[in-house]
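# step 3/5: fold
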Amino acid sequence: MDISVFNSKGQDTGRKVTLPESVFGVEPNEHAMYLDVKQYLANQRQGTHKAKERNEVAGSTKKIKRQKGTGGARAGSLKAPIFVGGGRVFGPRPRNYSFKLNKKLKSLARLSALSTLAKEDRLVLLDNLVIDTPKTSSFAAVLDSLNVSARKTLVVTKEADKNVVLSSRNLPKVKVATPAALTTYDLLNADRVICLEESLSIFEEIYAKK
């Protein structure tokens, strides 16, 4: 698959680059992507939720009324769940929501996501991105020239660039990452993925089948 290369001013350079089929030409596996995204979201959960049960609520355990002869149901304590201020029945307890996925499945999920981006024409190839000093307006100007400023955008750089990261962190719809740090969730959640031309070789090294 061939894709046009743009410069930081949003102009077509006239060059086309062939995307590696081993990375961007894989038949997408939707179930693998679903599992990887599910694991990512599950790992974001703190799992610190807690509700007090009847043995944890402060209060007297004195029997509030006699057992028989009242015409009502038996009640042994004000801490029972049927009373206001009582404990909760089967309330949430702290737990760990994370679960394990095999490396091959996670790799397939990311390859599927990258191939989906290429097929849906949501991938933008940039020849270079140079920001000398951290400045949000400079980074925003690049996004405006590429007509992606109003969309959720993922920028993929070859390696961590401090100036690019600092220039983008005030933009709520923008995330900057390296190929090694990408997740399936990041790829699928973005409306547009701006990929630097030099990062394609990193994709081949990491995700392509050997």
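# step 4/5: annotate
Helices lie at 21-24, 30-44, 103-119, 136-145, 162-168, 184-189, 200-207.
# step 5/5: archive (pending)
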